[in-house]
Amino acid sequence: MHAASRETYRAGVEALASYAKRVKSDTLRTVADDLLSVARLLSDEPRLRRALSDPARDGKDRAGLAETLLKGKVGAGTLKIVTTLTEGRWSNAHELLTGVEDLAIEALLTAADKDGQLGEVEDELFRFGQVVASDAPLQAALSDGSVPAERRATLVKSLLEGKAQPVTVRLTEVALAGIGGRGFAAALSRLVELAAERREQQLAYVTVARTLTEDQERRLIARLAQMYGREVSVKVTVDPAIVGGMSVRVGDDLYDGTLSTRLGDARHALAGDH
What we know:
Layout (H helix, E strand, L loop, with lengths): L2 H18 L4 H20 L1 H6 L7 H12 L5 H12 L5 H22 L3 H16 L2 H8 L5 H12 L5 H11 L7 H15 L3 E7 L5 H15 L3 E7 L7 E5 L2 E4 L2 H15 L1
Parallel strand pairs: 1-2
Antiparallel strand pairs: 1-3, 3-4
């Protein structure tokens, strides 16, 4: 987001946080659904999106238009958040849409946090991403943009309902729409990152040839926490193809100590000697 949009979005986050203190998690899930409905309306109606972000119109006027359109159709909490967003300045109409979508995700994460389930939601999103990545037909079915998101959401529900937290299921459905233009897999990864950020943890993706013991994982977490000066959430993928060792990715940092990579480097070095 550009500077003006970021400032307005922060005001929306503050409005959501203030409301969240007074309500239960199920109300926040309703707010998220309302915000997603508003986002769909903005996506389907570009003229309305432009009108609600038009810098030539007074902020109060834009907020009044939003209130006229939405009053009685969304809850009071959602209406306050949306009018806060529309009253502020946006660099362009698309960033208003992005802001509404992002706040819906924030509302779902806040609901999980209130229930003490945020870490579990983070893990469930990651594990489902692994399941999808390992099943090519499933990955194709969920990533097919030519199939309406509602139909793909039915598949998600059949796979996750009763096996994952309701917020996990809803966030996975949100990921089907892409989140900021991302594909489904990238959207799921972004949700895992957002959950970790909300828990004020650094996310580390670890690939190993065989499952780590609890002691090995505990020592790895402690080492990474020491390196990065904050708590670390480790997401482990087991891939026998790396033969041995491990690969660790933290943000833009990659530590590749896999045996497969070392063997590949050795082969290249030997080939260069001839």
